[in-house]
Every structure is written in structure tokens, then in C-alpha cells.
UniProtKB/TrEMBL annotation:
Family annotation (InterPro entries): Thioredoxin-like_sf
PANTHER family from the UniProt entry: ACR183CP, OS09G0542200 PROTEIN
UniProt lineage: Eukaryota, Sar, Stramenopiles, Ochrophyta, Pelagophyceae
Record organism: Aureococcus anophagefferens
Descriptive protein name: Thioredoxin-like fold domain-containing protein
Source superkingdom: Eukaryota
């Protein structure tokens, strides 16, 4: 017991010398809204996507349709770079940098559009997983994203490059989104928090029962049915 207390005291004393990393409490949301909100949304939905995840790409068009149809739901995209998708951190940071440089969630959504268009995801993922260096991946992303997003290539590059321990604001912001997911038990993509609670999807084939891994098979009507389920408790 005495040794344990001494260890805690030593850790506390060394606290000021430990590296400071951003963290979020459960109630603090990060990410980017899919559409601008002019009024209070009655529900919140956080959708965690990975730039190299094929299921995330498959889910994207339905998410865009849902965001356009349901202004009563604040749908925010959280990028969650999966550790086994080597190199996926860099496109996540690139889209975050683009949004911060333009101060616009719309730029972020457009960046994801470009990444998920045609063979772009496959091409950058292949470069990252086969033989591309960090510099190679950044070069490819700048060439792919700068012009469509209306951002000078040198400016985008400067806001993506990082050193060993830190980087530009986009580095910190991307890390915050990752930690927000981890603090809420997210471990795969796509994943969803509905009003702060992780759920696993629902579809008509299973009579509305939540089914893990069902996101890519859900049509727009399935997402809306899930949002319209009763969320309150009965009054007695």
C-alpha cells in the first residue's frame, strides 16, 4: 500500500513534465457538420469514417442524402483513422486541414467527396500500403485535393506536414476526433453514435432490430426509420 501511494505521488509530481495530449469528455463533440445548421437540432448523430475504408465509402452517398433530408438531425462526420490501414491518417489530416484553412465544414464534405470519387481512394490507399513514403502520400493528396478545394498546394502541404511530436492545427484536430471516438468505444468504421449512444444499425430485413455491420446495406428509408424510433421514456 505504501509503495502504491509513493508511486502515485511520483506520478503526480512528474505530471508537469509529461507530454500534453488533447482529450475529450463524452459530452464534447468534435468533427464537422454535413450541412449548416441555422437552428437547434432535435437529435445528434456522429458518424465515424475512415478514408481508406471501403464500407465508409459505400455509406457516404446515403449519409449525404440523409443530411439533406433531415435538417432536424445534426449529422457530424468524425474521421477515425484505423491503425491497420497504414497511411490513412494523412488523408484524414488533409481533409481536416482543408476545412480549417477555409473555416468551412462544406470544404470538409467536398474533400471527402473527392477522396471517395472514382478510384481516388483505391489509388491513394495502394500508394500508402505498397511502397509510398509519407512524402509520396502528401504529394499525391496535394495533387488530388488542392485544385478542387480551391486551396494553394503549398498552403495545404504546410498544414499537413508534421514532425515527430506535433504539427499544425489539423494534426491536433484530427487527433481530437480520433480520441473522441476511442473514448466512446468506437473501434471500427463506419460506426455511429445516435444522441451520444453507440448503435449498430437497423434494416427492414430484421424487423428493425439493431444489427452490427448493417450500415452499408441500409437505404435512406432505413436510416430515417431509425431516427424516428421513440427516444424517450414513458411517463407514469
Amino acid at each position: 500500500m505504501k509503495l502504491g501511494l509513493l508511486a502515485l505521488a511520483a506520478a503526480a509530481a512528474a505530471g508537469d513534465n509529461l507530454p500534453q495530449v488533447p482529450y475529450h469528455a463524452r459530452g464534447a463533440r468534435t468533427g464537422f457538420s454535413m450541412v449548416p445548421r441555422s437552428s437547434y437540432a432535435s437529435q445528434t448523430m456522429d458518424v465515424f469514417l475512415d478514408m481508406f475504408c471501403e464500407d465508409s465509402k459505400a455509406t457516404w452517398p446515403t449519409l449525404k442524402a440523409l443530411a439533406a433530408k433531415r435538417p432536424d438531425v445534426d449529422i457530424r462526420i468524425q474521421l477515425f483513422p484505423l491503425p491497420y490501414n497504414f497511411g490513412t491518417w494523412i488523408p484524414a489530416q488533409a481533409c481536416t486541414a482543408a476545412a480549417l484553412l477555409t473555416n468551412s465544414s462544406a470544404t470538409f464534405v467536398k474533400c471527402v467527396d473527392v477522396m471517395y470519387s472514382g478510384t481516388n481512394q483505391h489509388d491513394v490507399k495502394t500508394l500508402a500500403l505498397v511502397n509510398g513514403t509519407t512524402t509520396d502520400i502528401i504529394d499525391a493528396l496535394v495533387a488530388l485535393l488542392a485544385a478542387p478545394l480551391g486551396i494553394p498546394g503549398d498552403e495545404l502541404r504546410k498544414n499537413v506536414e508534421s514532425d515527430m511530436e506535433s504539427g499544425p492545427p489539423s494534426y491536433t484536430f484530427t487527433k481530437r476526433s480520433l480520441k473522441y471516438g476511442q473514448s466512446n468505444g468506437i473501434f471500427a468504421t463506419p460506426s455511429v453514435l445516435l444522441n451520444g449512444v453507440q448503435i449498430y444499425g437497423a434494416d427492414h430485413e430484421h424487423d428493425g432490430v439493431h444489427a452490427e455491420g448493417g450500415w452499408i446495406t441500409m437505404a435512406l428509408a432505413d436510416w430515417e426509420a431509425m431516427l424516428d424510433l421513440p427516444t424517450g421514456y414513458p411517463e407514469f
